[in-house]
Amino acid sequence: MSSLPPVKEDRIICELPLYFTRDAAVHTKDSFNVTVREASQEQKTGSNVAKVIVVGDVAVGKTCLINRFCKDTFDRTYKATIGVDFEMERFEVLGVPFNLQLWDTAGQERFRCIASTYYRGAQAIIVVFDLSNYGSLDNAREWLEDAMKDNDPSSVLLFLVGTKKDLSHPDQLAQMEQEAIRLSEEIRAEYWAVSALSGESVRDFFLRVASLTFEANVLSDLERNNSRQARDIISK
Amino acid sequence: MAFQGSEEVEEQLEEPEETLRVSPAEEMPVDGPPAAEEPEPLLLPWDRFSAWLHCICVVGFDLELGQAVEVIYPHHSKLSEKEKTSICYLSFPDSNSGRTYGHFFSHAARDAIHSCCGNGMLVAVATEFLPPHQISRSCLGDTQFCFRFRQAVDRKSSLGCFLDHFDRDAPVCLKRDQGYYYGYVYFRQVRDKTLKRGYFQKSLVLVSKLPYVTFFHSLLKLIAPEYFEKQEPCLEAACNDIDRWPTPSPGKILSLPIMGVVMKLRIPTCYDKPGTSQLVQSAPSDSLVSIVLPTVHEVDLFSCISPLRYCSDFRPYFTIHDSEFKEYTTRTQAPPSVILGVTNPFFAKTLQHWPHIIRIGDMKQTGVYSAYKPFLNKDEDIIKQLQKGVQQKRPSAAQNAILRRYFLELTQSFIIPLERYVASLMPLQKTISPWKSSPQLRPFIQEEFMKTLEKAGPQLTSRLKGDWIGLYRQFLRSPNFDGWFRNRRKEMTQKLEALHLEALCEEDLQLRIQKHTEVETVDLVLKLKEKLTQAEKDLLPVKPGTIGQLQAHIDTIILSLPEDLQGILHKPPSP
């Protein structure tokens, strides 16, 4: 099999990208877990792909968010997603090739029933809301609950992302952020505010998602291996 | 993509790659076809979908109305009334006892296919007696099978040329089926007290020209259960997923996202080493790829005459409601050249006069009943080898591989003399002149071919004795030979065209036109342009660079003409 082209330079991660706000982060450490670093150095990482699903109300900008990151484009015209869109994004984390499968689900009500099909086995769930629309934040909790029905809460990373930061009035933004952070703390999600139009924080956010899912993947693989070894020792 | 005129073709090919719709799934080339990486043409919405499927149908059973196509997806897909009727009847198990019946193969069955010229073959499956491993593994009440039916109208697909392109690299048994569709069925029958009859009965059917049996059954296993639970939005989403897939190019590893998982697939190519299957390796990186398909095509009857292609009609599942039922079962004529798979015991009775019948399922009757008298002697060695395998409990996959390889070598021994003779029909290279039309192939003369067998017959590569001459005579009358020869003739004619084009390329055209009048030069330009268009359309096997070189030649000649003529000649021909 011929090898793939090298990973794009801006997808190479050597240092752990930082959280958006200390108040609502998956963790606040400033570098990768030691065991993860060691495993990467020795090329002993297992699976190198993570499934990420993106959910949220209709027209909050899920597809725009992904397009800004994956294709560095922004389309002002709205086109509803049918069912689910799919993007594969390649990274290199600590020298290890790593892929994110991004499943961009439709926000429309009539597709809500099929969403669960797509949720299964996700390592990260990104709940998106519109920073200029209160209702979409209210619904974020519901989206999350739906998504969690088919997943193990202990093994899924959660992200709450406010979009259209450029459209939000400063006063409104402050208030929305406060509520969003409160919700994030409650559901143990990491909070981010971004703008797909200007591109603000979009790349930082996805690099953070890639890094944290990578870290979690490596740790759970190691744990599985260790427990298998422990079992083997016991059975010997 | 509509190939309406050469202008459009050129324009689209020149489109910078960034503006093409980028495939969301990775397409990783693997070692395989020698063809150079060609840019994928601009694809419109639903083009990608159409490269895989014609449509998806939901067929329901209504107590008053009987079977009916309830939904067709995408909504714009066209099916004639006759096609709908075929789909309706063939999407339900016959005699209400249907189960997936696996494909199978046997020595005699192979010979029968070989000779299936002008007489039919019946594969009768007594479903009640099927061994458990052949019964669909999904939950009770779900059944998968496939059927094949005639295309009622010749739909000129604008994608046609583009799709032919993939077929070029596909092995014969995986080529797109012209004039026929396959229906891949997922049938669900469950008790439902709220319904009048007490049963819910519905089929989800994928309609496609691609004979990828294993692949489509895996796909249905993902889509159908979700559909029965969640209804139409699920179909809409599935179709949308499929419309993002990379096109079905043989030899590439294709990642196909569907319903939240990614299927990985490699369509074999005709360049793959025979007898080997290039499995898609399941690397750790594929931990989320839930399905890794080693092959797209199930073990079946036709691949045992590979590399020959079975060229007559066949119906994996045939019922009394089939639109060709009368045509194929009338007793007034000799059995038609067709292979039918049936489950309804009615056929076993009605068609018991057919020369080849394979019965499966009922232990007392299971077997191959054939009126076929083999031309070649039994090969005791291979039989001994297989028997030894049985004694040593060799896995059936290994036994299968041994038998398959044996058949392949045997068929190759049979084909080599034909190939050699057909190659001799090619005119000599020196007869190709750039300034004359390309020379013609000599005709195939049976007796002339037969004479070559004395010295260069199959005895050179096979120790098997028997009436090889008789076998050739029989074969030359069969549709399988006809199909094979047509294909070879087409390839050779294209080769001639390509050589002619290359010869033209090497000519000093500039020098030539100096000796000619303006009218003759214009005529030459027009002729060259036409040749070029044809070469691009037929994907002629020319040396790389030839097309570009010829185009450059044409441009130089045009530039040497007066300006008013230049304007006219540069204009692409009106469609």
UniProtKB/TrEMBL annotation, chain A:
Pfam families: Ras
Listed PROSITE patterns: RAB, RAS, RHO
One example GO MF annotation: GTP binding
Cross-referenced SUPFAM superfamilies: P-loop containing nucleoside triphosphate hydrolases
Presence of the UniProt keyword Protein biosynthesis in the record: no
Keywords, comma-separated and alphabetical: GTP-binding, Nucleotide-binding
Listed name of the protein: Ras-related protein
Organism from which the protein derives: Triplophysa tibetana
Classification lineage: Eukaryota, Metazoa, Chordata, Craniata, Vertebrata
From TrEMBL, chain B:
GO molecular function: guanyl-nucleotide exchange factor activity
UDENN domain segment(s): 54-495
Highest taxon of source: Eukaryota
Pfam short name (any one): Avl9
Positions with biased composition (Acidic residues): 7-17
InterPro entries linked: ABL9/DENND6_dom, DENND6, Tripartite_DENN
GO (cellular component) term, any one: recycling endosome
Region (Disordered): 1-37
PANTHER family per record: LD41638P, PROTEIN DENND6A
Family as reported in the entry's similarity comment: Belongs to the DENND6 family.
Name listed for the protein in its UniProt record: Protein DENND6A DENN domain-containing protein 6A
Organism, as annotated: Triplophysa tibetana
Lineage: Eukaryota, Metazoa, Chordata, Craniata, Vertebrata
